[in-house]
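Consider the record:
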Amino acid sequence: MSTVQRQIIWAASFAFVLALVFSAAYIMVFPLQDWADLWDRHLMNIPFVIFVPVASVGIGILFGIASGLYWRKQLQLTDHSLHLLEEGRHSELKELPALTEMQSITSRIEKIGRQIAEQTILSQRLATQKAEDTESRIQEIVSQERNRLARELHDSVSQQLFAASMMISAINDSKSSSDNKETRQMKMVEEMINQSQLEMRALLLHLRPVALKDKTLQEGIEELLIELSQKVSMNIQWKVETFSLDKGIEDHLFRILQESVSNTLRHAKAQKLEVLLIKRDDLIIMRIVDDGIGFEAEEGKAGSYGMQNMHERAVEVGGTLKVVSVKNKGTRLEVKVPSIENGGNAND
C-alpha cells in the first residue's frame, strides 16, 4: 500500500468517526422526536443522515490525498539520498525536505555519504599504491633473476666457450696446412664457436638490467661500450656529448642502443661499430653504424621483432627511427627525438 492510499484511508476513517461523534453530540443537544426526522432535516437540500457522513468522508479523502502527496514527496527525497548512497555516489540535494525531522535524516545521510566517499578515495589510493608496490617487487625479482642467469651463463657457458675457442685455435695453429680437409673442418668449428660466443654476449646483453638506475644516458652508454670492447675483438668507437635529458627518454634510448648492439653482435659479422649521441637544433640524435654484412629490408633480417620493438620505443618518446642497410656494406640506425623541454642551441 502506497503512502497516498494509506493517508486517504486513514483521513477518511478519521473524518467518518469524527462525523459520527459530531452527529451524536448534535442529537444529544437537540433530541429527536423520531429517528425519521433525520431524513426530514436537510443540509444543502441533502438529508442530514446522508450529508454528514458523505461530506466528512469526502473532506477526509481530499485531506488524505494532500497529506499523502506531501509525505510521498518527503520520503522520495530521502529515498533518492539513500539510492545515491547505495550506488556509491554523493551529491548535495538541490531541494531539502520541509520537515525538520526529515532534514535531520537527510543531513545524516549526506554525512555518511561524504564519509563513504572519503573511504572510497582512500581505498582506491591504497589499491593503486599496492599495485605499484607489487609491480615494483615483480620488477625487482625479474631484475635479480636476470642478473643471476647472466652471472651463471657468464661463469659457466661463456667461459667454456672461451676455453674451447682457445683450444681449437691452438690446434689449428699447430696443424700443418697440408691436411686441407681436416683443417677446413677445424676452421669451421672455430668459426662456430666464435659465433656462439657472440650469441652468448648478445644474450648476456639482453639479460643484464636495462635500467640506468642512478646513471645518466651518457654514463650508461660509455660503461656498456667499454665493457663490450673488452670482450669482443670488434673495433668500437663512440662520441657522446653531455646534456640533460628526461629519464623516460634516457631509458628508451638506452634500450634501443642495447637492442641495436645485440643485433650487430648476432647478425652483422661486423669489424667496426660506431655510436654517436649528440644534440643539434632541438633534436637528440643517436646513431649506431656498423660495417657488417647488412641486410635488405624485404628480407626482414636482423630480427623483425627487435626492429619493431626499437621503432615502438622511438615513437613512445615522440621520435623517429630510420634504418639504412646495404648488402655487404653495413647498417646505419638513427634515432631522432625532439627536445621540447629545453631549447637547444645549434652548435654545428
Observations:
- The chain has eight helices and seven strands.
